[in-house]
Amino acid sequence: MEFALSQLSQQVMAARGSERPVYIRGGGTKEFYGEQVDGIAVPDIAVLDVSGYRGVVNYQPSELVITARAGTLLSEIEETLDHENQMLAFEPPRFGPTSTIGGCVASGLSGPRRMAAGSLRDFMLGAKLLDSTGKVLNFGGEVMKNVAGYDVSRLLAGSMGIFGALMEVSIKVAPKPFHEETLVLETDEAGALQQFTEWRGLPVPISATVWVADDTQRAGKLYVRVSGSEPAVAMGMARVGGQVMPADQAKVFWTTMRDQTHPFFQARPLWRVALPPDSPPLEAGPTLIEWNGGLRWLSTEVSPADLRRDVTQRGGHATLYRYDNRPADIPVFHPLPSALRNINQRLKQELDPVGIFNPKRLFPDF
Amino acid sequence: MNESSLSSAPDTGPDFAGFIARLAGTVPAHCILTKVEDTRPYECDGLSLYRALPPVVILPENEEQVVAVLQGCKAFNIPIVARGAGTGLSGGAMPHTQGILLGLAKLNRIKKIDLATATAIVEPGVRNLAISEAASAYGLYYAPDPSSQIACSIGGNIAENSGGVHCLKYGLTVHNVLRIRVVTIDGDIIELGSHAPDSPGADLLAAFIGSEGMLGIVTEVTVKLIPSPSCARVIMASFDSVEAASLAVTNIIAGGIIPAGLEMMDKRAVHMVEPFVNAGYDLDAAAILLCESDGTEEEVDDEVARMEAVFQHAGATKLQVSRSEDERLLFWAGRKNAFPAAGRVSPDYYCMDGTIPRRHLGRVLGAIEQMEDEFGLRCANVFHAGDGNLHPLILFDSNKVNEVECAEKFGAAILELCVQVGGTITGEHGVGIEKINQMCVQFTREELDFFYALKSAFDPYGLLNPEKLIPTLARCAEYGKMHVHGGEIRFPDLPRF
To answer: Membrane-spanning regions, if any (chain B) (predicted)?
Structure first.
């Protein structure tokens, strides 16, 4: 085992021996996300700092896969892919220049292209995990199809580090589309949802959609990105209609959506509400819609309990994504039915019996 | 003819009579089979090399009955093996000699096809192709298309994370299933995934798909449907070496093209299938590629032109583009009929399923050719070239002395070679009982422990499909092979490259 890895392994073994938890950190850009650590600052000694364990391990453009150590900067990975005209098709948000690929996978967040290309977990092919005994386990690999054993690497995506520390990940990459255009339509929220439903059943190469209200909260703009070969994009543009957005403006716009720097994301509290895409408007406050209706960013005065009740009835889930003042007794993530929660808890218990990895980051009580 | 299959179970086994009595009132008598003549058809799945007679077969007709069966099994400590259509190729549905076989074929209703969300809600026994047939009225279809799609069930697809010819572009089962409803061994009903994107908590849906019936019993599934392409054409390209064909595959992907399907057949496979289907395959070619483009007419024209340019550049000796839907299907007919064609030229065949990084295709095929001499058997190769998933078909005659054993050893050597070049022992057929020894080669003891932890979180009693997928450490010790770190060659006596 090389030095940087053995240091991390020893820290985990020491933590387990002394039954003191460690808090996994890459670039530290997602500390806002998930349950917070009892409201107190984590002492440096308790941080498992993965940022030094970095570097692209293997990248073969024609294999459509990149393998990198967890501390590798997301920006370095994207530059590497860019040289070969490839990309991370799930467009993970970049919360700062120090964002790492490990943090990206652990949080499981995807950006605008997710509605067409798939989510981060869909692109996971393999992972190396530092387990609670300090050993490195290897799951999946670099091949597209692999059904040997359970699909652990996908299970780890979005697990917020509660089962162990990601050390290395293999991710499927995609060629960049040959061509892209963005169209803008004027419509209110109900009209946008109606459009999404129409487009879902048609072979239109839409790679991202955003609807955002104007200041009146009644009318709004619907931004639609079409991607593919030139004939496909031409066909998509004819189907969608609206005004073509100049390419430089479109690029800026989609970056602000992907990185959540659009002014809408300043709202507090900001809820991330996932719904069946045909669900009617929430009517609970200013809303920004992505993923053809599947994702609704919401700024609301409605009580968290009432919001979650409504969202549950619609078959969705609501995350308290960003906030200034944390409402008491409201978990960040949508609570699970007990049978499902128990399976999660048993899994945590089996894999990390002493509870050293990121305690209470994903669930408020373990 | 009324011999009971119960009598074949050891006396020390579970109390099946008590178990069946418990089900009375919930599960009708006609759903419970115990006569040998009735249970015999369930003794194996698509891998008929492995057989076991189940003492009891239960064919539930609704979810309530599934719950009752699982609660009963837990109470009487009886193992359960779930079965869909029984087309699996790794013995995953091989019965347990002291357990019940739970056949889910009667749960075969398509509950909803929803155009507004482009989804379908179906029961696990619904056939893969039946979903697309039902969705076609709305201009939609279900993308994963394993070659057994006419018969295999969606529940079985979930158990195996099935792929198919089109998964290069459209993904595997895991990419196309949004939500499942599951009965746990405790009789609880849980839902994994949802109609909304992502889900709170750990992604147990991803872990469940491909878990080979070891975590729970699926009673309802929501799948994603996609709009049917208005046009599809396939290019058939000949090459005078496997290496040239492999390079063409690499260049297609490197050129930013993701074909709807990209398949390769070697010369032996071509010679095997051509007399069977008369598709006009080039018998002089060392390898043939089938490369499909789909979309609108304009998109397909554009993409086919790009593909042709790549093939010409890679040294294709012959190129043909399908001119009609009939011709497209004819080109595919050979590939899709490779297995029956193997059955025609050889008394028996054994289909392997390793996956390797695409760049090693040429090397691995060369090594397999050398192994033919080593094991004294012939091997035809058909594979999903686009995703590096090999299906070597080892041809043998079970009536000849040692040939079964040689075929098994040949297969094991191929799989271990796949692991050695950075691939895996199974791309889409699953581990089941067939490849359980090779799991000891691919994974360390600690990795297997991780799998057990997941199993135990769902099924602490170990009753769901025991002794499949994840080998016990004792089994690995007996097989004499544990994964070795550091890249040491595990079989120094076998020639490799």
So the answer is: none
B470/A149 Cβ within 8 A:
yes
- B346-479, what's its fold? Alpha-Beta Plaits (3.30.70)
B203, A150: Cβ pair inside 8 Å?
A: no
Which residues on chain B are in Cβ contact (under 8 Å) with A115? 197
Which residues touch B171 (CB under 8 Å, ≥6 apart)? A118, A122, B143, B144
CA A284/CA A294 separation, integer angstroms: 16
User: Is B346-479 the same fold as B231-340?
Assistant: yes
Q: What are phi and psi of A358, to 5 degrees?
A: 40, 55
Contact in structure between B248 and B289 (CB atoms under 8 Å) = yes
pTM beyond 0.90? yes
Along the 366 residues of chain A, how does pLDDT read in single tens digits?
789 999 999 999 999 999 999 999 999 999 999 988 765 667 777 999 999 999 999 999 999 999 999 999 999 999 999 999 999 999 999 999 999 999 999 999 999 999 999 999 999 999 999 999 999 999 999 999 999 999 999 999 999 999 999 999 999 999 999 999 999 999 999 999 999 999 998 999 999 999 999 887 779 999 999 999 999 999 999 999 999 999 999 999 999 999 999 999 999 999 999 999 999 999 999 999 999 999 999 999 999 999 999 999 999 999 999 999 888 889 999 999 999 999 999 999 999 999 999 999 999 999
CATH topology for B5-103 is 3.30.43
| Nearest CA distance, B481 vs chain A (angstrom) | 16
Q: Which top CATH class is B231-340? A: alpha beta
In chain B, where are the structural domains located? 5-103, 110-227, 231-340, 346-479
Whether ipTM tops 0.90, in short, is: yes
Task: Report the b/e string of A254-281 with b at 16+ CB within 10 A.
Answer: beebbbbebebbebebbbbbbbbbbbee
Q: Is the CB of A275 inside 8 Å of chain B's CB atoms?
A: yes
In CATH, the architecture of B110-227 is 2-Layer Sandwich (3.30)
The architecture of the domain spanning A3-176 is: 2-Layer Sandwich (3.30)
